[in-house]
Amino acid sequence: AKLRGKACTVVFDHAMYTQALRLLQVETDLRRAIEREELCVFYQPIVSLLTGALTGFEALVRWRHPQWGLVSPGEFIPLAEETGLILSLGRWVLHQACDQMRRWQRTLPGTDQLSISVNLSGRQLLQPHLLEQVGEILTDTSLDPQFLRLEITESVLGDYDEAVTILKKLKDLGVDSCIDDFGTGHSSLSRLHRFPIDRLKIDQSFVSQVEHDRESGEIIRTIMSLAQSLHMDVTAEGVETRAQRQLLQSLDCQYAQGFLFSRPLPSAEMEALIQHLPHW
Ligand code: C2E
Ligand code: CA
Ligand code: CA
Ligand code: CA
């Protein structure tokens, strides 16, 4: 709601009323989505730029809404974070993704060293008992911790010292982390080396512009040399063209992910794809 004037009158017009009702409806629906098994996880390959081999997947949640069809996380993750629903939703995604990864490792030849990357929101990272939860899920799915990677956005790490402490404990558990959307946040470079992190993920906004805009190229170059001096690997997200891939390869970027290789797919479709042990 907009606040106007000194009296802070809340101006609440009809459009906003409708909007509020809609949000309330979405929240109610989202709350039930897990129980009704409307959420599902899609998987997108992460490819080694050195060898072209599949190295793992990123888990990306989707919502199959009975009326609206497939809803993308950009539409409901912010609401889930605002309402706290992200805690149960995130736990569900983590369990689902670890379980799927372990099943593939067990049943599909050549997949036993592949890893799964799961997005963790700030609120999830800072919740009490996260460590116990992650530990439980790993035990329950019998996935080796070395095959799980958590993706945390740069802004969360920049804002909370606590987050760094938690990542250290996760690392002790054997779980690596990655800074997501790198380049869009505001983490101070002087603190970066203290983050217990072994990978940076270059945001797709830089990758998508790299053929058209010199600055994006410069930013990627800077991130690459920064990562090198910090002994971190880099994944580029949103790689759509061969030209982008070639440029990233020429800069020694280790991993890439994007429509050029594969869109995020439901598990059954991804399984059909990896049965042929793809090389890109
Ligand atoms: P993200 O973590 O930066 O994920 C990458 C997004 O880029 C995904 O969007 C993916 O589908 C999309 N993408 C991948 N390759 C390409 C490409 O070549 N071109 C283009 N244009 N896009 C590409 P998606 O799946 O809609 O997810 C959006 C965001 O929602 C994610 O951004 C992440 O921040 C959040 N998210 C998704 N799943 C989860 C989850 O389980 N938990 C949490 N906390 N956040 C999630
Ligand atoms: Ca991510
Ligand atoms: Ca991103
Ligand atoms: Ca992100």
From TrEMBL:
Q: Which residue numbers delimit the EAL domain?
A: 23-278
Q: What name does UniProt use for this protein?
A: Diguanylate cyclase/phosphodiesterase with PAS/PAC sensor(S)
**Which section of the whole protein is represented?**
653 to 932 of 932
